Amino acid sequence: MLEGLKLSAATGETPWSAVEPPRARASRWYAVQCQPHRERTAAAHLANQDFPVFLPLREKTRRHARKLETVKVPFFPGYLFVQLDLSRDRWRSVNGTLGVVHLVMQGQRPLAAPQGIIEALRENCDEAGVLLWAAELTPGQAVRVLTGPFADLIGELERMTETGRLRVLLDIMGGRTPVLLPRGTVVAADSIL
């Protein structure tokens, strides 16, 4: 193969037929534990080092100074994912990145996420990186409202309308008030978010 890579004496060029195609990267996704509330900082600094980074987000309504605001927060608080080829990338430098505590390890090597999981999560994100996630809900189930003026209230799922909205019974001022909510704003009350 080395003979094929000799430069042509007349032109000084390498013949394209002799150049091997680049090897396919054996990259996988790995979890990175971040410092508290520093996921975005860690993602930015890892991206500056040319590591592909995935930080799935979700929308959350928070109350502050008598105002409601919807913000994007990490779907997995304290974690993000980085794509690495352990045989080629300088993966140890991830641990020294601003905002990073360490790569999730198994012994002396980073522990790869199960094949296909991160890819599936990425496919279910919108262009802003917000994960479009909907767990199965059943009528009669206790649910928690994630966003809007009813954020953090727990109610009972009464039914789903034909337009995909949910009718939830919320305990407001001593009575059960029916409220129609978009599907993405409600999760099971026992889910960890």
Written account of the structure:
- By secondary structure, the protein is mainly beta.
- The protein folds into two domains: 28-123, Alpha-Beta Plaits; 142-188, SH3 type barrels (Roll).
- It is built from two helices and 13 strands.
- The strands form four sheets. Strands 12-11-10-9-13 form a five-stranded antiparallel sheet, with no helix packed on it. A four-stranded antiparallel sheet has the order 2-5-1-6, with helices on one face. It has a two-stranded antiparallel sheet with strand order 3-4.
Short description:
With 193 residues, the protein is mainly β.
SSE map:
Blueprint: E1 28-34, H1 39-48, E2 53-54, E3 57-64, E4 67-74, E5 79-84, E6 100-103, E7 105-106, E8 109-110, H2 117-123, E9 142-145, E10 154-160, E11 166-172, E12 175-181, E13 186-188
